[in-house]
Input
Amino acid sequence: MPPRKDRDFVMGFDSDSDISLPEDDVSTSTKVKGKAKAKAGDKLRSDKGKGKAKDAQAYTWEASYTRSWDTVQEDEAGSLQSSVDELMARGRRPNLSLLAPAAAIRRTIIRHLVLLLDLSASMMDRDMRPTRFDLMLQYAREFIAEWFDQNPLGQIGVIGMRAGIGERIGEMSGNPQDVLKYIAERHKLEPTGEPSLQNAIEMARSSMNHLPTHSSREILIIFGSLTTCDPGNIHDTIDTCVKNKIRISVVALAAEMKVCRELCNKTGGQFGVAMNEGHFKDLLFELIPPPAQRATSRAAGAGTGSSNPAADLMMMGFPTRLPDATAPTLCVCHSELKSQGFLCPRCLSKVCDVPTDCDICGLMIVSSPHLARSYHHLFPVKPYDTVANLENVTNPSSSCHACSRPFPTTVSTSATEGVSPVGRYKCPECHHDFCADCDVFVHDVIHCCPGCGN
Amino acid sequence: MDLSDAPQLPDASHLSVVLDLSPTQWHLSGLLSNKYPLSLNSFLSHVLAFLNAHLASQHENTLAVFGAFPAKSLMLYSSTLHNPELQSIDSNSYAPFKLVDSTIINRISDELDAIDHSEEEDAPCALVGALTKALCYVNRISLPPPSNSSTSLNTRDSTVLPDPRILILSVSPDLSTSYIPIMNSIFSAQKLKVTIDACQVYGPDAVFLQQAAHLTGGSYLFLERRDALLQYLIMSFLSAPSIRQILAVPTQDRIDFRAACFCHKNIIDIGFVCSVCLSIFCQPVPVCSTCRTKFPIKTLQRLNASRPNVPSLNKSGPPSVVGTPQSRTPASTDSRRNLPFPGEQPLSTTPGNGNTPATNGSKH
Output
């Protein structure tokens, strides 16, 4: 639990100009945590705590700090379960209401990302457990796995910043296992010296120069230091990145640096300062979904009549996979005798792995499930309407249309905004009722309405 | 506790069965002109025997049956919902089996009687609806039990069932309009760690079901001897996925990774893909219909030129046959290839002509 409280506390503080030293952060937050716990105990028991809390409010930021423990109410039986359920139900509803793009959105789906890891001495700080460095490696691994899950046609390269230079750790690769292998060996990445933002960005930029224009170029910097030692003017580097349409995002672990924020603002990336372990992960994982292209580019494209030069139509082939039990034949890519493989649909030659370009006819061969992974971004399920009451409904269905669980017959009194008191959520298209669990599952996982999906 | 589940015994497993109950297809399947006719009645008796075998193999096993009717899908039976309409107990049958059998048969006959013969019979079967419902059901039973039983959460961890799996018994050909929902269902099954098994009882090979089984680690079976359905079911689908590694279940033959295009819903093997949103089209289009991206005119010219014969804009004919460059290659073999399938669905043309030269070519 401590991480959550910590996070609330700093958010109330002021997340924008959080320039205090990390040591300060830690000491104040632990202090407040202790105080908070004491207060929580008092609050729940008696009213005496109120006066006490007022006296203790020595700092202005305390006023803006919402006491989450005050909002929790015990039910008749003295259990907190109903409150917890309610909070959980409320917590997941708002997310759904945000996902409702009115028009067709464009997302860059073929992505290229260079992960810049700070390997300077400041990464050995222990303000994040066990160290910033270990935590970064751990989250980077989770990030890479999830990133490839959502961006199956993307590629990731890894570059480290240490001892004043940029150090190439791994080339661009579309295979998650390869990328994970780059950062698997901890002892090879031992942090030393000062980081150099400019050197590393230049290196990343040059490795993405050759990429086709229709794919995105992104740099994600995990930065733990408060300094950078650069050989030249870093603003020149930023300008070239803008010119090359490279989007730079920074997750800082220590504090905000002006140059980092400028990097992100100018190139259209995101900037965030991690306040604790959980927030660090949130910031990283926010960068996983493919970025929606800005609406301005579409307007401009429509106005001039000439299309977005970044878009293109590609010819792709969907192969047939041969089973392991077929007679072995030579593959065209390595000239090795293998039984499994994929057949190019145009020239019928056998390649070992997809996605790839056919070595014989040059056709891009992809597995169609790879493409299909991103389709839920394109055709999202409309959010279900919350059914407030059953008064206007003639003959309401007795059970959830998806999982056939009977709906509750009693009306819940404690329901709040966005939560149906009768436990029903109605699809605006097919007008079937669904239960809360299925509502969340349909929108978060399946992305296909069981009623409309005919 | 220690005695009841001995370490050798596999854990209880959950099975959801999706039955494709398209009246048209079952009528065709039952015709005596087939080599091995299989009518709906005998199919159901095979399936019920299989379901009983699943329930009998372990007392804790759970079962849910979903039916896909034309333009409608519903749950036929689930072992968590207790049906009140328990008939008089027949002394010659085991009561739990009798309950399952009679519930399923009654629901199916009710639904089939309710189908409006004039129009609905030809509507496509709601296989996707049934599949998504099966997934929602698995999701629901794999969630931790609701708050009232939270005290007993620690004691009954086994209520969160291991190894859920879904078996699809399909008789309809691939429905290309449901490509995206099917793929979405496959990915959610992967997330839920649900194995999808598929058995194509009648009709042509189902491309999407092959992909579903392949991606979720299940097995896909194309039935040849349809009168031996029960044997196929018991030999390959009765065992839980964890045991199948030890057994020699039939492995999948070649898997077709073809996709359905967004524009004409044809199943194609070479398509044109929008680089922004990855929408698939069967012919070069100037504007992406999904994200409204305009493509450079140069690309269109290049792609059209790379296809040997630009198809005349014949709207009546199936556009995919002309849309796939492969079928338009002006080689001498081409005319021969196209001849046997003049008006056929494109899905049956490509694998047939594709496979034979493949093996020949690569062996040399």
Q: What stands out?
A: The first helix of chain A runs from residue 2 to 14.
